[in-house]
Amino acid sequence: MLEQWFACELHCHTVHSDGDFTVESLLKTARERKLDGICLTDHNTQSGVPEAQKAGILPVLGGMEWTTYFGHMPVLDCRHDVDWRDALPDTIDEKLRQVHENGGICGVAHPFQIGTPICTGGHWDYKVQDWSLVEYIEIWSEGSPFLNTANRRAIKLWESILDKGYRLTPTLGRDWHRPTNNMYPAACTYLLCDGGKLTPEKMKIAIRNGRTVVSAGPLFYFETETGATVGDTIAAGDTELIIHTNTDRADTVPQANGYNPQAVRIFTNGGKMLSEIPIDGGDLRITLPLEAAHWYRAELWGEIDGKPDCQLAVTAPIYTE
Ligand SMILES: [Zn+2]
Ligand SMILES: [Zn+2]
Asked: What is the DSSP letter of 282?
């Protein structure tokens, strides 16, 4: 079946922890925002997950946000609870391994949030030795993504891990606690999944395989002529990238912002910008000499509500052998 992009919110809270949302109001609000699926990540509990999955309103990938003094770590779809209470910075790899042994996946939430005492443990202080044990990182959290210093630092951290040769999936976490906005209403993580009905399992596979785009609204991604796309590994050499931008969903979200995509920027190892291409309607094509053992990712820039020079979307990388 052809693959398809789905709009998802991967970081949500309810009254099962410190959110104002009931499970039902979260799901209904998500549907109003034209989201296709969510992850439920209450602090240190999965108690809302059965109700959310039974409601049948949207596919729900169950999880919890490990909320510790040393960082907040979303753990998704773990068969048995791993004890988060004795997680320590120097031995976090062992906990990550235990999550994987139970089928789960791990993320880094808002790594540069102001930490203790403002928000207990919100700053990421775990010393991960083996980043292959972590599936994803929130490169955008809450707030206005392109005006938020913490998000810019998160992107730098993400790139530094990619530069070491690890694969790490970028996500957006609205850190959604209540119906009011804390970010642009259409912002989401787009997940590329097998087409047809979205399921929690498909969401998990997309995160694991690096098939994501973080966006303030527009769907933005690239592929090669042979159909390889974000998360894939391709051969080095001259490669044509076909870059797509689509605001159809974003334009239908209630109270959505106005988007005017203006340029695409391509980045590679070291955070180096390889190319900047103006958008003048339709798909873009650019041929780049891709080097071996590198990562390449794209960003969409433009206006949001008339405000110039904003980062509108960030793709996961494509990797070269
Ligand atoms: Zn948190
Ligand atoms: Zn949270």
From this structure: S
Whether a cis peptide bond, with omega within 30° of 0, leads into 317 is: no
Q: Distance from the CA of 64 to the center of ligand 1, in angstroms?
A: 10
Identify how many contiguous H helices and E strands the chain contains and give both numbers: 6, 18
- Compute, in angstroms, the gap from residue 120 CA to the centroid of ligand 1: 9
Q: Cα–Cα distance between 108 and 138 in angstroms, integer? A: 6
Give the Å distance between the CA of 68 and the centre of ligand 2. Answer: 12
- With beta carbons less than 8 A apart as the criterion, state whether 17 and 25 touch: no
Instruction: Specify the CATH number for the domain of residue 301.
Output: 3.20.20.140
Q: Where in the sequence is the domain holding 236, given as residue range(s)?
A: 3-320
Could you tell me if 187 and 172 are in contact, meaning their C-beta atoms sit under 8 angstroms apart?
yes
Strand runs labelled E in the chain: 3-12, 37-40, 60-68, 71-76, 105-108, 136-141, 169-173, 188-194, 212-215, 219-224, 233-234, 237-246, 259-268, 272-278, 284-290, 295-304, 307-315, 318-320
Burial of 143 (0-12, 13-18, 19+ CB in 10 A): middle
| Ion ligand 1 — residues with CB < 5 Å | 72, 109
Amino acid at 313: A
**DSSP letters for 82-106:** ---TT--GGGHHHHHHHHHHTT-EE
Q: What pLDDT, in 10s, does the model give residues 294-311?
A: 999 999 999 999 999 999
The total number of structural domains in the chain stands at: 1
Structure pTM? 0.97
* 37: nearest Cα among 59, 70, 11, 14: 59
pLDDT > 70 fraction of the chain, expressed in percent and rounded: 98
Q: How confident is the model at residue 133 (pLDDT cuts 50, 70, 90)?
A: very high
Dump pLDDT digits (tens) for 229-287: 999 999 999 999 999 999 999 999 999 999 999 999 999 999 999 999 999 878 899 99
